[in-house]
Amino acid sequence: MLTLSGPSHGKLCDGYSRRDFLRIGGLAMGGLSLPDLLKAEAEAKAGRSFKSIIMIYLCGAPPHQDMWDLKMDAPLEIRGPYKPISTNVAGIQISEHAPRLAKMMDKLVPIRSMYGSPTGAHDSFICYTGRAPNPAGGAAPTGRQADHPSLGAVVSRLKGQADPAMPAFIGLSPKAGHPPYGSPGHPGYLGPSHSAFRPNGAGVEDLKLNNISMSRLDDRRALLTGFDQFRRDLDHSGLVEGMDSFNQQAFNVLTSSKLLDALNLEKESPKTRERYGKGDPKNYGDGAPLNLEHFLMARRLVEAGARVVTLNFGRWDFHDRNYPQLLRHLPLFDQGMSALVQDLHDRGLDKDVAVVAWGEFGRTPTVNAQGGRDHWPRVGGAMLAGGGFKTGQVIGATDRLGGEPTERGVHFGEVFATLYQFMGIDPHKNTLDDLSGRPQYLVDGWQAMPELV
To answer: What percent of the chain is modeled with pLDDT above 70?
Structure first.
């Protein structure tokens, strides 16, 4: 994160003059220029002109049989103790521990037949790219650089920023004991300039200009430009060019209070904050927090101009004590997801913002000796909302044990093709060059889901 500090020579942020504001627009590396301001003003008059995605990664893979696909005809060791309840859509039932979502099923699409993980190994990669992890990849930086980029990075590269003061791709994912559980989605071969902007914790303070004057900001920018020009002449990897773009984005963000405003939940009404709730900001084991305020933050960020926001929630890898742990996770997810979806509808954003929540695979039909469900890559579940999609329906079905898809198996790549199409990106015509210069398609031949569009 780029932090600028120095003695005070005049106020910025909320206290600058119009002359100072226009001077920001003249910064050499491309800040908020006058044309940008005029364009933003015109777009504001015309209404929202861009689409956004909120992707909720349920770290570790939730038990689909206990949430959206309960099997009451199965033996007790498979069906578990939970009961299904009816929803506001006739014929659709979900777990009794998701009553808020049940009351708004007309705004949701449960998918009961997700598949795509080849091995059932924990990695958020498939949730963020729609592809199986690169066998040569892994946690090593070189492997991650060679990997396919995440959806957020692709959208950042192909669509750019909807607002120069807001990063295109934002990840609400604190560090986790298991690194994939803390990943917002990697930029892969697109490079660091398309990484997720991660404003969590103390990093928010780095967004503030500490009373630095505009002339000093100009000097800092010019100095960086000079150093980067020298390094660029010596560098052939493209890394410096990527950092140039990153620096430009950082200056754009630093010279506006828009991102800080979006992150400031105090600007929301007490009623709205109560609807979302708080949850727990501490990491759950080696996973992510059960932080309900991240759902509200995600809505504020897409409303302010972010194109893709990823949100990591909980730690659903219940190899033991499946039912007690699910009773901690599912009611909180029910509250956060339902509040987000209703909020988007109330604000008229349900056609402009798509929401998807899922984990990397499903769980075993049979409960093990420790009372848990193990990894099951053959089938899992997901939930979609918004996007102007045809909601109020279930897609796919599994057998009586919840172990095999029997109707309309849905691959992760199909959902990604649908999301790219929603964003105005043709996944079959747009390509991106990998590190060897070879063009790569965004999805492996998968088509957008006709049931949704």
So the answer is: 74
**Local structure of 231: helix, strand or coil:** helix
pLDDT tens for residues 213-226? 555 545 545 544 55
User: Angle 432-435-437 (CA atoms, 0-180°, nearest 5)?
Assistant: 60
Which tens digits make up the pLDDT trace of 105-148? 999 999 999 999 888 888 899 999 999 876 544 443 445 666 89
Which residues touch 317 (CB under 8 Å, ≥6 apart)?
A: 59, 60, 61, 122, 287
Rounded to two decimals, the pTM is 0.81
Tell me the β-bridge partners of 108. 385
Measured from the Cβ of residue 430, the count of other Cβ atoms closer than 10 Å reads 14
Among 72, 44, 268, which Cα is nearest to 162's? Answer: 44
- Ramachandran quadrant class, 261 (left: phi over 0; alpha: psi -120 to 50; beta: rest): alpha
CA distances from 267 to 271, 280, 300 (A): 12, 21, 10
Please state the length of the chain.
453
Rounded-to-integer distance, Cα 153 and Cα 93, Å: 36
Is 135 within 8 Å of 420 (Cβ atoms)?
no
Q: Which domains does the chain have, with CATH numbers?
A: 48-209+255-441 (3.40.720.10)
Q: Where are the beta strands (DSSP E) in 59-97?
A: 84-86, 93-95
- Per the listing, tokens 């404003």 go with 199
Q: Which residue has the tokens 């609807």?
A: 275
Whole-angstrom CA distances from 28 to 21, 214, 217 are: 14, 12, 11
Residue 389, φ and ψ in degrees, nearest 5: -70, 160
- Outline where 130-187 has alpha helix (H): 141-146, 151-159
Phi, psi torsion values for 22, nearest 5 degrees? -70, -30
Closest to 132 (Cα-Cα) out of 115, 113, 151, 117 = 117
* Spatial contact of 33 and 251, defined as CB atoms under 8 Å apart: no
CA 166 to chain centroid: 15
> How many angstroms separate the CA atoms of 143 and 140, rounded?
5
∠ CA 183-239-140 to the nearest 5 degrees? 40
- Using CA atoms, how far apart are residues 202 and 209, in angstroms rounded to an integer? 15
